[in-house]
Amino acid sequence: MKKFLMTAVLGMFALAGFSQVKWDARLGVNFSNLTGDGDTKALTGFTLGVGMDYGFNESWSLQSGLMFTSKGCKEKDAYKARPIYLDIPILAAYKFNISDNTKFVINAGPYLAFGLGGKVKYDGGGDDKCFGDDGWDMKRFDLGIQYGIGLELSDRYLINLTGQNGFIDVADGGDAKNMSFAIGVGYRF
């Protein structure tokens, strides 16, 4: 897993030598839950990181990034589970002008996520780790689809609405998968 992550990071920096690559910083709020588990409710979290946009032409580009994202869920009068992931989306994006300084963006593609940490806090007191044998023993790897829409204002400011649906159960023996929606802003360098 470390080799793959290092390869992905180095690949993104290798693309930086091309003039079509644009970098940005992003920040947002997300609402996450687990699908397949009817008792849980959405939990508010954060997303923070850097993004990359490699333009093939005026309309099509490849978008990726490294995003620190909190996901999870809560169950009333029981617990709040808040795992932290490093998300790496690999998205195809289509852009078109809606005015002189504004582009509308539609993107979709797979994402990879690696569990970094997080805690489960119980309403009665106490907590556990999300990942590891001495906690909830959630799976550290997640894979799914990401999709979104957004605006690029003056080629500097970004506004995004993003959704993710995981394909992998978060724990062995369950049927719960990550699902989240995020609203974010960004600044392109």
UniProtKB/TrEMBL annotation:
Residue ranges of domain Outer membrane protein beta-barrel in the record: 20-170
Coiled-coil region: none
GO cellular component, one term: host outer membrane
Pfam families, per the entry: OMP_b-brl_2
Keyword Signal attributed: yes
Record keywords, A-Z: Signal
PROSITE patterns xref list: ENT_VIR_OMP_2 (PS00695)
Signal peptide residues on this chain, from the entry's feature table: 1-21
Entry protein name: PorT family protein
Species of origin: Phocaeicola plebeius
UniProt lineage: Bacteria, Pseudomonadati, Bacteroidota, Bacteroidia, Bacteroidales
